[in-house]
Design a protein that fits this description.
Length: 313
């Protein structure tokens, strides 16, 4: 199953997220994920494992499991490379690490420009509190250049809210094909979802399991809220369909045309997550899950501007 993007390319509805996939196991995990049927991989400079992810993908290609054209590689421009003169070199370095010839989808990771960090001093550069004087328009125009250069097929945005999207649409010569945002039953963002539909921007949900991704990071917000896998609304619907809570959470998004990119370091869970489109929830079940929304956002740049920054360092 795939989504037709405004760029004309097709993006798989279910992919594999690479954040917090250990460097030591990343190549094998990616290779096994391809064997299990995954075709979309969601990487980022910030995840620090692009080289290893590329090794896994290239091994699968070299062994004839897939061809390059069967894979969909998403990756992201990090905040310290927003200045137009840094966009091309940053993207080319990432592309070289993957060794896959082109990037299918290149996202601006955050609408936040941070002071440039020379990759020879620190890579990936991670978060800082030093802002750079680079407007989003300049970064977007440099990203449009990557499409013209043929190294990127589609471009998009991540962690943008409605008003910023409307601003970008004023000057974008290439429309953002995808918005990737935090989206789970505790943070449903209905107005943002509607805006994207209206403007023909496909949405990819990240952190589809809500608190679970952040429990392992020890975040208070995650530890003090019910894990979605244990929420009785979710478990009730899961048993009614003989599916796991994870599959129900993913289906709640995919059934509304929202792509998902769950991450798992576990072989069985990785397979289970891919099998989340072979059943349907009814409208009442979708609504019941959506009603769990209370605006709980884990990934908020405002939090990272308060030193000390611990999480992404
Ligand atoms: N654009 C952005 O700013 C941004 C931000 C965050 C994430 N992302 C992307 O989105 C991807 C997914 O988000 P995420 O990594 O935050 O979290 P996620 O996929 O919502 O959740 C991952 C957590 O759920 C567990 N898990 C996975 N499958 C499970 C299953 N079937 N049953 C029970 N537990 C399961 C994982 O543990 P195990 O590994 O032990 O299974 C891990 O603790 C990331 O990898 C990244 O590619 C993008």
């Amino acid at each position: 199953m795939s989504i037709k993007l405004s760029s004309g390319h097709a993006m798989p509805l279910v992919g594999f997220g690479l954040w917090k996939v250990d460097n030591a196991t990343c190549a094998d995990t990616v290779y096994n994920a391809i064997k299990a049927g995954y075709r979309l991989f969601d990487g980022a400079c910030d995840y620090g494992n692009e080289k290893e992810a590329g090794q896994g993908m290239r091994r699968a290609i070299d062994e004839g499991l897939v061809q390059r054209k069967d894979l969909f590689l998403t990756t992201k421009l990090w905040n310290t490379f927003h200045a137009p003169e840094h966009v091309g070199p940053a993207c080319r370095r990432q592309l070289e690490e993957y060794g896959l010839g082109y990037i299918d989808l290149y996202l601006m990771h955050f609408p936040v420009a941070l002071k440039y960090v020379d990759p020879s001093t620190k890579y990936p550069p991670s978060w800082s509190t030093d802002l750079a004087d680079v407007p989003i328009q300049a970064t977007w125009q440099a990203m449009e250049g990557l499409v013209k250069d043929g190294i990127v097929r589609s471009i998009g945005i991540s962690n943008f809210q409605g008003s910023l999207i409307l601003d970008l649409l004023r000057y974008a010569k290439i429309q953002p094909a995808v918005l990737q945002v935090e989206h789970h039953p505790y943070l449903t963002q209905p107005a943002l979802m509607d805006l994207c539909k209206l403007k023909g921007i496909a949405v990819t949900a990240y952190s589809s399991f809500g608190p679970s991704s952040f429990v392992e990071l020890g975040w208070a917000k995650a530890l003090t809220n019910t894990v979605l896998f244990e929420h009785k609304t979710v478990t009730g619907i899961a048993s009614a369909h003989k599916k796991t809570p994870a599959q129900v959470l993913l289906r709640w998004a995919t059934q509304r045309g929202i792509a998902v990119i769950p991450k798992s370091n576990n072989k069985e869970r990785l397979v289970q997550n891919l099998q989340c489109t072979d059943f349907n929830l009814d409208t009442k079940e979708i609504e019941e899950i959506s009603k769990l929304n209370f605006g709980l956002r884990f990934n908020d740049p405002a939090d990272y501007m308060k030193p000390p920054i611990s999480i992404f360092a």
